[in-house]
Amino acid sequence: MPKCSFCGENLRRGTGKMFVHTDGRIAYFCSMKCEKNMLKLRRNPNTTVWTKRFSELKGSSKQDKKEQKPQPEKKEAKKEKPKGK
Question: Would the pTM of this model clear 0.70, i.e. be above it?
Answer without folding.
Answer: no
